[in-house]
Amino acid sequence: MRSVAKKAYIVLILLLLYAPIITLVTLSFNASKTRAKWGGFTLKWYGSMFRNDAIMHALYTTLVLAILSALIATLIGTAAAIAMNTMKARFRMYFTAVTNIPMLNADIVTGISLMLLFLAFDAAFGFRTVLLAHITFNIPYVILSVLPKLKQTNRSVYEAALDLGATPVYAFYKVILPDIMPGIISGFFLSFTMSLDDFIITHFSKGPGLDTLSTKIYTEVKKGIKPEMYALSTLMFATVLILVIVVNYIPDADASKKQRSGKIIKE
Amino acid sequence: MRMGKGMKKSIWMAAMLVALILTGCGKAASSGEEVVVYNWGEYIDPDVLSDFETETGIHVVYDEFETNEIMYPKVESGASAYDVICPSDYMIEKMIANDLLQEIKWENIPNVSNIDPQYMNESEQFDPGNKYSIPYCWGTVGILYNRTMVTGPIDSWSVLWDEQYKDNILMQDSVRDAFMVPLKWKGRSLNTMDQAELEEARDLLIEQKPLVQAYVVDQVRDKMIGNEAALGVIYSGEAIYTQRENPNLEYVIPKEGSNIWIDSWVIPKNAEHVANAEKFIDYMCRADVALKNFEYITYATPNKAARELIEDADIRNSEIAFPDLSKCPDLEAYLYLGEEGDALYNELWKEVKSK
Amino acid sequence: MKNKKDLLSLPYFIWSAGFIIIPLCMIFFYGFTDRDLHFTFANIASITETENIKALLISILLALIATLICILLAYPLAMIIAGSKLKDSGFMIFVFILPMWMNFLLRTLAWQTLLEKNGVINTILSKLNLPALSIINTPYAIVLGMVYNFLPFMILPIYNALIKIDPNVINAARDLGANSLQTFLYVIFPLSIPGLISGITMVSVPALTTFVISDMLGGGKILLIGNVIEQEFKQANNWHVGSGLSIVLMLFILLAMGLTAKYDKEGGNYF
């Protein structure tokens, strides 16, 4: 009985979360150009999407931006988190405060303040400025993902490794890094997602001719979304879904090894 | 988290994807000749841009904005040097006032002769002497109504205060367009700076608020097509499209008068490719190009040569797309009211919105 | 710096100075000056105008309600998933995060299609001869939009806090004779508070500052403080007042965070 109730609860929340997704997927098959009317089933938007240079270009920009900004943010953020973990309280306070600022500010404030900065330094608005902006708002997500994992790591294992003659770098790679890897990875993916979804900050730091999917969608919200956008979103969503399922369910060659290391991390 | 382990693989996949993207599609080298265009979203036929590129060899760097107000700070700050921009009337006046535009050399734009002189006349309201701007699209603001959902004739702004349409009215969510409605209804100028007139308008808007289903911008279109509301304040350019999708919809310019708006091409002071900007504007004024754009965006073109090329006589002679300006009731363009005027309107609008 | 490890923070130190601190100073600069760049408190003081204070209060109210609903929905869910014998609870949690991969604007727009008078939900309801649901363009729709968009931010940290609880602690409580309720109240819940706190922050802050959701689902009839700030920047083109109000909002959030922070003993975030 209780497990039935639990399942029903999960299904209910899933329904809430996926109702709009289903709507969007359905709209991508809508032959009518307006979202207000069902004009019959079609696959034509999936074809015309690939022929639409503007959309394809925006997709390319979005992906490169998301991956690059997430990677760089992961590097800087992880390094900072490792340092923060053992840092003197005084320094740590500065970093904690700084990390919280972009998360507390309304996006529009962050966006405008970055625009003011780029203006003051006369930077050419374009891909580079957007990349800088995205890295900036991504770093906190990495730090906030990695820091808790670092707190859980057992320092004595690391110190034991040093006692046994490992160099600090070697000990770090062998002991600490595997422990905090899940944090690093979820920081990376969180950054990636945030970058993918961001509109406001991108808008204020971008230059002419540069469009991400979000900025493109925003100009379209006012004029009516092009059905190709629904098609593209559906495709991206499906890709991620399949990727996640594959990564989770395909058994790989070194499964046994993985399980062992997995256990260590769990404990 | 167990999935973390599996994700290690996906990080490698991601890294490979980056490598692939970065090597695979190196940026196409530009030939050097380019023109940077800043236009409204969805306000041009994409084919026109690529045709222009093949014909002239000039690469178009194209950027879009959603409102005049979003466009303005980007141009004013000089954050990006645009060559051609397409602002609306009052914004052009503001940009002229703040010395952001340069005079257009008419001799370099021969196709301007295609533009109907009556629109050049209208433009004088905000650009005296037609020095800075060349009309691209124009239209009116009126009421779009659903024939099956209204009773009696719809010909006055007063229906927007009619109790029977409670929750069936869509208003425009922008300061000037919202205030235009009560101002025009009561026979005022839509550029009034008279405190009493504006406060009257504000009170009318507050009185109307319970009847309003939503304040939206261009979503009036989708909502009217979907029979969500009986009445909506909308730009005439959307009327043709919405009627095509939902034949029950009718567009009317209320008898008390309304707003006439013109979006025009301008060249900012800090443009880096003025000669290319002129070529671009000239191209846009060509009859066949203007026609192509009209068919794509359905906003009325001031290009009379293009209008003559429209095959469908119903549309060519449509009273909605091309109302006879001489017969039309009191149509006014928005003028720039100065910083104080802007602040006053915004303040009153905020009072309406927060009620 | 004595510790060599501290040097690892150098890139972030430089980065944060350049891209966080300096821009923040610029906001403060604008917030405390007028158009002629003279020092003034007027921008900050404008929060006391009736419309602005009203917008702030409504924002706080809606954000609080949305946060509360998020907690009520997310906590049991996180417990079910964390407690499930499923070896894939990580995967399960991913299923709840996955919707975030659809663009935020599109997802919110989809709610319009769902909730409208002739929208999907009402079409289904009328087929079933049930009364129509008319919450679109009301505060209810805004709250729904907030809950929908920010729920994953609540689920994730609570879940992460729950799975970290050592099963031995729970077993010990059981051995000592605690029943399920007692175990929950005295063991599980206190240990999950840091996650809960970070969930509250992650939900309430964006809910407090949003303007897109109120625009799209509130029909533009309800003015939130986010809308006010957005309009100052975008429509009124008054960056000074916009910055001033942002500073107020920022201080307000910091204050609220400071109040909750004392429960957050670990000081860590659970992402």
Task: Describe the overall structure.
The complex is a heterotrimer of chains A (267), B (355) and C (271). Chain A has helices spanning 2-28, 44-51, 53-86, 89-104, 107-120, 127-152, 155-163, 168-197, 200-205, 213-223, 227-249, 255-266. Chain A is an all-alpha fold and 267 residues long. In chain A, helix 3 (53-86) runs antiparallel to helix 8 (168-197), helix 4 crosses helix 6 (127-152) and helix 7 (155-163) runs antiparallel to helix 8. The longest helix of chain A is centred in the first third of the chain and has 34 residues, at 53-86. Chain B is α/β, with parallel strands linked by helices and 355 residues long. Chain B folds into two domains: 34-137 and 262-316, 3-Layer(aba) Sandwich (D-Maltodextrin-Binding Protein, domain 2), CATH 3.40.190; 139-260 and 331-354, 3-Layer(aba) Sandwich (D-Maltodextrin-Binding Protein, domain 2). Chain B is 42% helix and 16% strand. Chain B contains 14 helices and ten strands. In chain B, strand 1 (34-40), helix 2 (46-56) and strand 2 form a beta-alpha-beta unit. Chain B is globular and about 60 Å long. Chain B starts with a helix and ends with a helix. Chain C has two domains: 1-31, no CATH class; 41-261, MetI-like fold (Orthogonal Bundle). In chain C, helix 7 (139-163) packs across helix 9, helix 8 packs across helix 9 and helix 11 runs antiparallel to helix 12 (239-261). Chain C is mostly helical and 271 residues long. Chain C is globular and about 70 Å long. At the A-B interface, helix 3, helix 5, helix 8, helix 10 and helix 11 of A face helix 1, strand 1, strand 2 and helix 8 of B.
Care to give the gist of this entry?
The complex is a heterotrimer of chains A (about 270), B (about 350) and C (about 270). With about 270 residues, chain A is an all-alpha fold.
